[in-house]
């Protein structure tokens, strides 16, 4: 039995002995999507603990990827709660599900500072504060010498086969970076990409390339995002060209990076299972980006699973999560910890 299940059983037993003390705020069985990346695991487990200990729900975590768990919610009505749904991947079917009344978007942006884009090391940002946008920086490839040809600048893209690989390749072309003296470097793997960042940050050497937030890498190495001066060139350019293969994107237009949209989404029947106070909690639950990255570093350094990280977060960051719930609920959770 997991720690969360043990505590849930204890709370429910106490409720029974108290002669139906929880009846006014009765909460039933809920399944929560535990997405198979670190922040997804952490958020799901935090929700599970708070919903069980604070609200008396019986929670089951369902692990999986975005498309699989969303399809299950859409077709079967469970899991009922998706804490961190990256909605760009399911934009059209989600819109249809919301329109048809099967799902509800409770909260946009459950983590602050979310997004993808191009980053530099903190040492470079400190040394060159004037180069604070993509457009300014790409005029200076000489500041990022490529190891195999020092006359060229190195831009670190995504490994071949990753979904972000064509986007970076096409943005590289859209900004005429090859003509400006840059080389698009394939890191080869996740380890290669992370290793290049670690080397640049730890040795205080220039590094310029793609990454996303929240991640342990951003949290550990404090990478600095670059703004785009170029305005968003529209979804036809991005969805119809930038994210496709080079053969399908003959004329990519310069653009700012597409906005990453992340939401907490629930099935429409959650209100039949849980009290309104549970929905209020889910609407209020926003993780500060710096705290999330700190927790992802903790998970990496300690090889911690989502449940362990959730208990660490609840113990260490009361100032954050107690703002999401009433004092009474907070005390129940703290007593369980």
TrEMBL record:
One of its GO terms (cellular component) is ATP-binding cassette (ABC) transporter complex. Residues 1-23 form the signal peptide. It comes from the Bacteria. GO terms for molecular function: transmembrane transporter activity. Keywords: Signal. Transmembrane segments: none annotated. Residues 29-316 form the ABC-type glycine betaine transport system substrate-binding domain. InterPro entries: ABC_Gly_betaine_transp_sub-bd. This is Glycine betaine/proline transport system substrate-binding protein. It comes from Celeribacter baekdonensis. The lineage of its organism: Bacteria, Pseudomonadati, Pseudomonadota, Alphaproteobacteria, Rhodobacterales.
